[in-house]
Specification:
This protein is mostly helical. The protein has 2 domains: 113 residues, Orthogonal Bundle (Rna Polymerase Sigma Factor, Chain: A); 70 residues, Orthogonal Bundle (Arc Repressor Mutant, subunit A), CATH 1.10.10. It contains 7 helices and 2 strands. It has a two-stranded antiparallel sheet with strand order 1-2. The chain is elongated, with a radius of gyration of 22 Å. It starts with a strand and ends in a 6-residue tail after the last helix.
Length: 207
């Protein structure tokens, strides 16, 4: 399946074989790093997973993801800030899937999934999305409970990608000392997640 995946100079262009473009969209440079683009980036994995479960085929799912990204990019003005980007893109992806399935069904090559199965796949996707949201909230809660120094080293090491040597030089400490601090921070996070998970099961969660 050959699909247009981006824009250049205001015109739609196609990606070359093996080319990886930004979210399947060649965004205009002046529009990069916007909140919408960040949301589009975060939505890639859940939407691809949703499409894989619909199509049963990674290659077809990637083609549909490119179509979804292009439509989302073209309709970005209609997206309301603060809305659920994944839910919005999932509706676009489902429409593209149905359109492509109908085309293939008309050629008698691939049967169209029945509505019940589509609904079952979407329900499972929503369930996984809620579970991922719960995990993110739990992790954020536990991160905020860490001592400031431990929270900072977690952010710098995992989010900023700083090495132990860089973190050590910034704080005038040996890399081994930073490694020990990082280990304590990780252990505290693990303990907090386990503790709050048990409280959640007992209906006593604080987050």
């Amino acid at each position: 399946m050959s699909v247009p995946v981006g824009k250049k100079g205001g015109e739609i262009v196609k990606s070359s074989p093996g080319e990886t473009s930004l979210y399947g969209v060649k965004a205009l440079r002046q529009e990069t790093n916007t909140p919408f683009e960040a949301g589009l980036h975060r939505a890639q994995v859940p939407i691809l997973g949703f499409l894989v479960r619909l199509t049963g085929n990674l290659a077809d799912a990637r083609d549909l993801l490119q179509l979804t990204n292009l439509t989302a990019w073209e309709k970005r003005g209609a997206f309301e800030d603060g809305s659920n980007m994944v839910a919005w893109m999932r509706a676009i992806a489902l429409n593209h899937y149905r359109n492509e399935a109908r085309k293939q069904n008309a050629r008698a090559t691939v049967p169209l999934l029945d509505t019940d199965l589509e609904q079952m796949v979407e329900a499972r996707h929503l369930e996984r999305e809620r579970e991922e949201s719960r995990k993110r909230k739990l992790l954020q809660f536990c991160l905020e409970k860490l001592p400031e120094r431990q929270r900072e080293v977690i952010d710098r090491f995992y989010l900023d990608g700083c090495s132990l040597e860089i973190l050590g030089s910034e704080s005038n400490r040996k890399p081994n000392a930073i490694a020990q601090l990082l280990h304590r921070a990780r252990q505290n996070l693990i303990d907090c997640v386990r503790r709050e998970s048990h409280r959640e099961l007992d209906g006593e969660s604080l987050y």
